[in-house]
Amino acid sequence: MLEELYSVAGSAFAIGNLAWILFGVTLGYLVGALPGLGKGTATAVAIPLTFYLEPLSAIAFLVGISKGSTAGSAVSAILLNTPGEPSSTPTAMAGYPLARAGKAQKALKMGLFASVLGDLFSTIVLILVAQELAEYALGIGPVELTAILAFSMVFIAGLSGRSMLKGLIAGLFGILISCMGLEIETGSPRLTFGLIELYDGLPLIPVAIGMLALSEMMIQIGQRQRLADEADLLKGSSKREDQIVTLADWKNCIRPIVRGSLIGTVVGILPGLGASVGSFLSYGAERRASGRGADFEESGAIEGVAAAESADNAVVPASLVPLFAIGIPGSVIAAILIGAFTIQGITPGPLLFLENKDLILGVYVSMLAASVMLLFIGYFGQNMFARIVRISPALIMPIVVFLCCIGAYLQGGGTFGIGVMIVFGIIGFFSKKYDFSFVTFLIGFVIGPSFELSLRQSLGLVTDLPELLDHPVAIVFAVLAVVGVWRLTVLQRKQMAEMAKAETN
Amino acid sequence: MPKSDLYAGIGLMVFGLITLFVLIPTQTSDGGDASISPALLPQICAVCITGLAVLLTMQAAGKLKRGKAAGQAVPKAEWISSVAVIAAVGVAVLLFKYVNPAVAAGLLILGLMLYMGERRIYFLVGIPAFLLIGAWLLFYKVLGTAIG
User: Fold this and answer.
1) pTM for the structure as a whole
2) Is-contact A103 A237, C-beta < 8 A?
3) A141, A187, A284, B70: most buried by Cβ count inside 10 Å?
4) How far is residue A94's CA from residue A259's CA, in Å, rounded to a whole number?
């Protein structure tokens, strides 16, 4: 593998490609640092910038943005107690009290180091695992693929929100929406309402921008006063030990970073769990291990920042494992990257390693380069990013809405794309506020065509139920899907009961 | 007490039924010689959505009967802001079509800045101008395409 990576290093380390990675990481860090903006928004809005790039630069740029914004969201979480996205909430819980005690610099630095280490570890796992898994996936037939996709949807629906019912509805709605356009076998229009623009189906990018970015702006603009107020509560410190990461800090944090990286990587590989699950699990494990109880949040804990950030950042590269190996997007970022791959005429999945191996290897090298750049940009740009979080939301949000319109216009065929974005912005607003997982919707929308194709092929292959016995792998995944619905529902009920109990207490 | 899950369940049930009995039959061909009907997957989705919506409605009704909240309330400020954003983008699209792309983009940014409380004149002028010039460079110089 090292030899293969070395062979593509020339194209990955070309000045142009490195410049795009650097630009992506910096832009991502900047957007992530801004309160209320997360990696989904950053990546979705940036896709139009990749239209005229080479495939490697385009993917590397977007991966750089997602890596940068994941790490950058710690800045607003620690300084303003305003996580850019839910996965940074534990960072805010442990880091904001430190900032209020004058140790913001220390918390930011440790957050950055933990982010880079988690990200690097996860990237290495991606490099080692994805190709092996893809070789196995090449042997999978349509019957097995149908069962795997159904299982993935159930898994994602059950774990990406608080209600299995709502998650399944969101996923099915995504698949239903993906049916719009010309039908794959007969080529006849289906659910197009006479609109020629819909013959190719709904364009992914305006849908993603609406669901992720525009809906988020609708919510954040409603919370603008809270965002502005948080910036006024910070305190500075002149003590040097409050501004640097000491050897003692490293001794305390190395274990949570290792644990967090492992948790984040495992969570990332499993489709649908998402960065929030990773960072909360890691944070919870560290909180329990510390034995400090509520003091962990009251006084702040640098170990908590390290645990949450390492896991949060490990999720992003690991979530590309199912995308590269099987073609299943396990996260929002992976779903958006499918759009970017499609623009470049590339289909993610096991054939990627046969048809576009140099590209994938180039992406790997670019991801490693992005991890290193993340460290430098985060470290040397810390003071600048700390100032940026204080920029008024009244200046930032209108710019983001404008960029959303530009992106939807470019990729959606003009004003039709903006119309699609508006519709899905409204749907996204409702799904976020009423807990119908937008992640499951988007993934359902993206895998819908593959699901339909494999379902049709399966129905052609398996005409009688006993013939299904020839496909044991499919049976296993079908059973797992059914068991998943049952177990995850039970688990969610327990969690809801515990939450209700905690609220009563 | 929030009843959003109940309303969502009923709304989705109606949506599922309309999709199943109106949209799919009128908007999907019978498939002719196709081995499998083009309506198959949409029908599966619509049936499942309707079924799950019935369950959601029953679950929400049960919760309300026990005096528990079924869903969550959305703050008024978020409703207002979402309507404002959609209205601003909608008006910008109309201006784009019937007036001028630059006017549409400029007013979209300016309107949202004013709505969010920005009153500093140098920002109100500078940011839309900067973005419009940036968009012009992107479309006309980098991408080599025209807008509008």
Assistant:
1) 0.80
2) yes
3) B70
4) 17
**What are φ and ψ of residue A189, in 5° steps?**
-65, 140
Closest alpha carbon to B29 in A201, A195, A452, A187: A187
Cβ contact A433:A217 at 8 Å: no
Q: Are B116 and A221 in contact (CB under 8 A)?
A: yes
Q: Which domain holds residue B54?
A: 4-65
* Min Cα–Cα distance to chain B from A170, Å: 9
Counted domains in chain B: 2
- CA A59/CA A341 separation, integer angstroms: 7
Task: Name the closest residue on chain B to residue A53, using Cα atoms.
Answer: B143
Residue B70 covered by a domain: no
The Cα B101–Cα B113 span in angstroms is 18
User: Is B10 among the domain residues?
Assistant: yes
Helices (H), A381-437: 382-388, 393-411, 415-433
Residues of B in contact with A221 (CB under 8 A): 81-82, 84-85, 112, 115-116
Per the CB < 8 A criterion, the answer to whether A85 and A316 are in contact is no
Would you write out chain A's pLDDT as a tens digit for each of its 505 residues?
Answer: 667 777 777 777 788 889 999 999 999 888 888 776 778 778 887 887 787 788 888 999 999 999 998 888 888 888 877 676 778 888 888 888 888 888 888 899 999 999 999 999 999 999 998 888 888 777 778 888 888 888 878 877 776 677 888 999 999 999 999 999 988 777 888 999 988 889 988 988 889 889 888 898 888 888 776 666 655 555 555 666 667 788 888 998 999 999 999 999 988 887 766 677 788 888 888 888 887 777 777 788 899 999 999 999 999 899 888 888 888 887 778 888 888 888 888 888 888 888 888 888 889 999 999 999 999 999 998 888 877 777 788 888 898 899 889 888 877 778 899 999 999 999 999 998 998 988 889 888 988 888 898 898 888 888 887 888 888 888 888 888 888 778 777 776 776 676 666 556 5
Contacts of A429 in chain B (CB under 8 A): 82
ipTM above 0.90, yes or no: yes
Interchain CB distance below 8 Å, A433 and B72: yes
- Within a domain: B148: no
| Separation of alpha carbons B138 and A198, rounded Å | 27
> CB A175 to CB B45 under 8 A?
yes
- Whether the CB of A435 is below 8 Å from some CB of chain B: the reply is yes
B12 close to A168: Cβ distance less than 8 angstroms: no
> Which residue in A has a C-alpha nearest to residue B20's C-alpha?
A176
- On chain A, the residues whose CB falls within 8 A of the CB of B81 are 218-219, 221-222, 224
